[in-house]
Q: What sequence folds into this?
């Protein structure tokens, strides 16, 4: 084509595949302005209008608004900057769509009611800051004034969920269940009591911090007894209970007597809340960690054994 040739809107429509109405719309907004008029008053465009219209169509397909497009074609904005900003916006949209897809899939799998779906969608679409606030509020309730204790740092980390940017359906389900659980006032109070007991025993005069916590010792000591079916009330269980109570006495700098065993029994009763087990299982799913072993069987066995000896 000759660079001096002028084209009507109809010519541009045939060359670009856009409708006359669309080209007139862009022209009215100054995105593709005419450079002249015919004797009859019709708009005429130069050869660069074809390239500009193709460019505008590409930007529109990518989702840019007309105001931004005009600034780009008029060189008021640099295209790389606009592209970077738009790419970031698209990333947010993609994340939102993936989250919605996961929520809908979870609803379908669970055959949820309308109320459950609304709650799931509301909780799942919380921003990262809102999710951190929700869990932070729970952890503050459990560990208030204890956050700076190094003995609890690992425990707090193990109780902190981080929903990934592109969660799987199972992670969305786990997050919703955990969010609901974290708002349970009775569960909060029980976890707070455990944290207070934990620190009270370690700050008691004469107490020596153990290499492992009581729960881990119970789990390891009881595992063989559970494996071979040892009756917790039988004499064969005596060495297991003796090892557990000796460790607990070491932790609290006390004597292995009836009173200490009652205290241990009380601690186990609180720690054996199935909601506590479930909380850690849900955190593992959300964070993509290996599922923790349940302490419930070992705790149940130990509670029965202690009661039989009291």
A:
């Amino acid at each position: 084509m000759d660079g001096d040739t002028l084209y009507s809107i109809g010519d541009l429509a045939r060359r670009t595949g856009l409708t006359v109405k669309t080209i007139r719309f862009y022209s009215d907004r100054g995105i593709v302005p005419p450079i002249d008029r015919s004797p009859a008053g019709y708009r005429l465009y130069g050869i660069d209008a074809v390239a500009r219209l193709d460019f505008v169509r590409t930007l529109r397909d990518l989702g840019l608004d007309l105001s931004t497009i005009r600034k780009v074609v008029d060189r008021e904005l640099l295209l790389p900057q606009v592209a970077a900003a738009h790419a970031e916006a698209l990333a947010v949209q993609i994340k939102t769509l993936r989250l919605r897809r996961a929520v809908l899939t979870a609803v379908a799998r669970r055959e949820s009611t309308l109320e459950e779906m609304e709650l799931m969608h509301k909780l799942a679409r919380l921003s990262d800051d809102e999710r951190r606030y929700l869990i932070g509020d729970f952890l503050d309730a459990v560990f208030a004034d204890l956050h700076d204790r190094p003995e609890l740092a690992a425990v707090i980390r193990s109780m902190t969920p981080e929903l990934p940017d592109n969660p799987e359906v199972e992670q969305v389900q786990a997050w919703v269940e955990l969010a609901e659980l974290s708002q349970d006032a009775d569960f909060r109070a029980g976890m707070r009591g455990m944290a207070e007991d934990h620190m009270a025993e370690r700050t008691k005069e004469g107490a020596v911090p153990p290499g492992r916590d009581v729960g881990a010792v119970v789990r390891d000591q009881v595992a063989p007894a559970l494996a071979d079916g040892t009756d917790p009330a039988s004499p064969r269980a005596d060495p297991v209970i003796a090892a557990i109570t000796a460790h607990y006495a070491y932790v609290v700098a006390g004597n292995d007597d009836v009173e200490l065993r009652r205290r241990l029994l009380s601690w186990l009763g609180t720690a054996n809340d199935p909601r506590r087990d479930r909380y850690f299982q849900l955190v593992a799913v959300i964070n993509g960690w290996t599922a923790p072993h349940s302490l419930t069987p070992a705790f149940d066995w130990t509670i029965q054994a202690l009661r039989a000896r009291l």
Summary: DSSP finds 15 helices and two strands in the chain. The two ends are 102 Å apart (CA to CA).
